[in-house]
Amino acid sequence: MSSPAPSRRWIGGTSVYFMTEDGGQVDQKNLLVTEIEAAEDARPVLYEGEELPSLTKDRFERGQSVILIPAFSRAHETYAIGAAEFPGLFDQPFMGWITGVALDDLERVRPMVFDSSRGTAHEDGALVLHVKLPADRTANVEILNLFEQDGFGPEISFTGPVTFGEIAYILLNQTMVRLQLHGQEQAPVA
Questions:
Q1: Residue-wise pLDDT tens digits, 11-41
Q2: What angle do CA 141, 147, 150 make, to 5 degrees?
Q3: What are the backbone angles phi and psi of residue 68, rounded to the nearest 5°?
Q4: pTM of the prediction?
């Protein structure tokens, strides 16, 4: 596989809800562009179907990976249930998000990811940008959660040992239930 020319910019998906210097924003006119200034090289790879568990195989020896997966796709389900079992997933910083669309648009617009290096759009699969970092740099991934429990649903608790995949599956289904209950006229999203 040939790599596209190194670039520090990667257009990965449309962004309806995202963080800016002014806090959380809603924007349906622009694309989210991530610039990784320290990148020495970058390699976008689309992993589909049975390739999904091998999404770390193309990464650089020293670097980080950024993943985008369309919401409600088969890749979303596969990742949510089985990612903790994917070989090497926790050996390097690995971060990303599930792409989506405004809830009002779910019936007419499918969540997608966009590979700007090839000019392609995908409704399924995991688009991963593998980034090579210089020897004097390391990536650090932190979690930013803008949400707080609103008291609407039951508190989620687990008893006994559970896998990451089981937790992700439960949380994914909790989200689907909340979408169904809040959008009373919409059918559950599956």
A1: 444 445 566 677 777 776 766 676 788 899 9
A2: 155
A3: -130, 135
A4: 0.66
Please work out, in degrees rounded to the nearest 5, the angle formed at the alpha carbon of residue 187 by the alpha carbons of 104 and 154.
Answer: 95
Element (H, E) at 31: strand 31-35
Q: What is the average pLDDT score of the chain?
A: 75
What DSSP character marks residue 188? P
**Could you tell me the two tokens for 160?**
């006994």
CA–CA separation, 88 and 82 (whole Å):
13
How large is the C-alpha radius of gyration of the chain? Answer: 17
106-141 per-residue burial string, b: 16 or more CB within 10 A, e: under 16: beeebbbbbbebeeeebebbbbbbbbbbeeeeebee
Q: Are 130 and 59 in contact (CB under 8 A)?
A: yes
Strands 94-99 and 63-70: parallel
